[in-house]
Structures
1.
Amino acid sequence: MIDLSERPDLSADLIWALQSYVFDSGRLLVVAVGRDGLIDEANLLFRSRFAGFGSVRGEPLVNFLTMGEGTDWLPEPGLKQRRPTAQVFKAPVGGDIYLFHVYPLGDGVLLIGELVDVAESDVVERMGNLAMEMSRLVRDLRKTNRDLAHANETNQLLARMDPLTGLANRRFFMQRLLSSLKDALTNQATLSVLMVDLDHFKTVNDRYGHAGGDAVLVMVSQLMKELVREVDLPGRLGGEEFALLIWNTDCRVATDVAERLLSRLRSLRPFDDAYRVTASIGVAQAQPGEDADALLIRADAMLYEAKTHGRNQVRTDPLQPSV
């Protein structure tokens, strides 16, 4: 994801529209280019089309797209920011034509566009269509903000919430985990993560239908909300897999939390005595300087160990933070 949160030269409405709809649309190519013509960041569609999903950061844009000679289309440093302009680029390999809207930034440009699968004579018309689409997107968002004073807050909440359970979704959970790891390192605080996977959940859907499965997920989520503090964050990572971020808590206390959660889960009776909720839980405490992926891999390994040793239990990673 391209981070535009510290771009004072873009309006808040436009940033929200770009972050919420454009980058992950699966149709529009998005790439940020610096004054030197090097790529700062690109969305998944751009990387998949031009680099086989690999990183393109630091690569010259001309390796993938060209427009005549040099980089005259980049804004001059120090000039007042212009309105977005439409430009046509061509891929050096294959010769495909792409239409991009060029949004000037303080230190470069943001390109948003698509493959033009038409004759060159129709490119100008496609430019107008893309311009209207972007303008309509921003205009509709502004209208919503005028009609609902709290729309921005509401939309941000929905963007980070799992719609079924009301817990943090995977994307927001990962964002919070990343920021919490940085805070923990700065403040020399402890941080632990629980990975929770409901056992034999497929049998719930088979026996009680998907509505019954959803009811179980909601019940489990409500229990997790009740057990944690305001500073902690429960999330649904997908399907029947949950996670819990516990702030300022070491592995020993986090294991106690996991055991308490498991005990409460066993007492749930969403349907009848024929089905009892159980889970496999993995626990890991963050190492100093450890990134989010490494921490989750250790917690997930403990979850897998719980699964392979009979499920319905908690397993804790033995690795303790070095002094």
2.
Amino acid sequence: MQTTFSAVARERLRQFGPALILIAVFAALATAAPGLLRWRAINGLLMDNAPLLLIIVGLTLPVLLGCLDLSVAAVASFSAVCGAILSHSLGSWAGPVVVAGAAVAGGVQGWLIGRLQIPSFVMTLGALGIFAGLALFISKANMVGIRPGLAFFDVLSARTGGMPNAFLIVLAIAAVLSAVLRFTPFGRDVYAFGQSELASYISGVRRDLVRTVAFAISSACAALGGMMMLSQTLFANATVANGLLLPALVGVVVGGTAISGGIGGVAASLIGGLIAVLIRVGATISGLPPASQDVAFGIVILIAVALTTDRSKMGIVK
């Protein structure tokens, strides 16, 4: 009886805890800085943080499999640099081409993880180094820019009905992925894979395909996030998104998506992402140095992982 009660309480905490935390953090920040309640301030926050939220949305799929994609921030930086360079020859088509290329690269990572039996964090850590190095090489460690007037980037930086298009795109992609996970065989396979890879294999789930698609979506979202960053400033460099990896991981796990896989979803991660955004805002309002954000994110991710990890799937912790 006690075990059942604990399981129910844990599930309720996972379902409703992130939303309550989001409300509490926002209320505390609004009390400390009333200007945050102004629509202009909220609008600016959504615009500035749309790339981070999109990375979080995409990263959710590998985490639901029980995997990690540590390359997302490097992919975003590399994509922003590639988008700027290719825009001089391809124009607006540079954005879609780069996003499609990132999806292929992410899919290859997912496929190799299964084929070579390499842990996902090792594979994507190696990819992080590759993309970061390539971004430095092709940019020559300098800023690269795009000219104004390119339709693809203008759409990303514009507003519709007073709302930033970038944030509306995040909501649209999150809604599509949520529907895919909830109503399609692929979505059921993702959750089955995350609950037990061996059991999913026995039941006929094509593990390599599921993993490949999940990592392709994660990389594509990261690349589009890089395009959003490029559209906002018209400039990019090799490290433009490097600071987004830790808050992206925090957003996923704080939202209740278990790092052990099989539990959570895109909507939950989006709520967690908004919490991560407010943590960054709170650190700024408090006048704390930028390094304090990483300290806060480090503490939060340790607590969140401890609370959401399903230890029944784990053998010996190494």
